[in-house]
Sequence to fold (380 residues):
Amino acid sequence: MIRDPESFTILLDTISRFVRDTLIPREPEVVDTDEIPGDILAQMRAMGLFGLTIPEEYGGLGFTTEEEVLASMALCYASPVFRSRIGTNTGIGSQGIVIDGSPEQKQKYLPRLAAGEITGSFALTEPAAGSDAGSLRTTARRDGDHYILSGSKRYITNAPEANVFTVMARTNLQSKDARGVSAFIVDRDSPGLSVGPYDVKMGQRGSHTADVIFDNVKVPAANLIGGQEGMGFKTAMKVLDKARLNIAAVCVGVAERLLDEALNYAKQRQQFGKPIAEFQLIQAMLADSKAEVYAGRSMVLEAARKKDSGPNITLEASCAKLFCAEMVGRVADRAVQIHGGAGYMQVSAVERLYRDVRLFRLYEGTSQIQQLVIAKHILR
Ligand SMILES: Cc1cc2nc3c(=O)[nH]c(=O)nc-3n(C[C@H](O)[C@H](O)[C@H](O)COP(=O)(O)OP(=O)(O)OC[C@H]3O[C@@H](n4cnc5c(N)ncnc54)[C@H](O)[C@@H]3O)c2cc1C
Fold:
């Protein structure tokens, strides 16, 4: 649902101009420094990008799902690391509070997350609990009006920058599955909480992940999300439903960029006395990519409109995440192929994006986990 088509078109145009004039020219700098420059962060704050999905009453733009996916597609025509920096505030690092938080929790955290004054992160994965996240081992022991958290989390996006974490921890110490898990809001400066060094990754330089360690961290009971123990895994899954659809939109945005890079190269690169775009084998790769990008875009928009009209979209979000994450991998591979040797060189955008997009088949549920979710739904 698009609430006000006229002003939304203006906003999308503003994002596209920002992408073209500011973000794309600075991509090499982000790769070289492994940081997003401060002036770009300031512009993203001023444009309201950190608060796209946070309700207007808490200072955000209150985007509907359709508006959110369209904005993500537009933003991710530039390197996906720019979206990754705002993505925990607009997605997994805020939505637990938006969906299940108490009015006090919302009031305390959402306005600053929306303004980009603070960064939120989502800490579910652990060294021994990845796809089987319900088996997580971080414990939260009740002690008067506090909980004491102990354990460690792995590969947490924006952990080095984060001021506040949504942490899933086991409150029922007898349980071994998802039913014993609760979600907490944990402030970065809590004594006993530490963040490891940046992980050295295959791609997405400029976006950081790290371990987060909880060594008897005292968290007020008031920071339990939903006010009830044992609801944390449900909160995490609601957050991930929305996040998976958004990752599918991210994949569409990057795929559109990759296709344009391939098209432009094919038109200007000459071999055998003519542009390689005139060879039908090159045209086949371009055409397959176009058809797949269009299919991905259509899927994401259909699922987003369904979400805005009310129904649960777990199935559709998994279908879109699975298809789009695999699709952008194929589009990236063809873009490198069309560039020939130039596509293997680090100066080319397609080489970098090829590595960047590999992540989308892995996080927020691997492609295999999406297949299991889809199969479970259709076999019911
Ligand atoms: C860059 C990056 C950023 C991340 N950011 C975050 C974050 O912000 N917060 C967070 O909590 N986590 C984050 N993660 C963690 C991510 O969600 C996990 O890596 C992912 O869920 C997979 O878990 P795993 O790495 O332990 O792989 P594993 O679960 O060990 O999987 C290994 C392989 O086995 C397959 N597999 C597992 N179970 C099954 C099954 N039942 N059937 C078939 N195949 C199966 C998987 O598909 C995969 O191919 C991030 C990861 C990366 C790489």
Summary: The beta strands are 120-123, 139-143, 146-157, 164-170, 181-187, 193-195, 209-220, 270-271, 274-275.
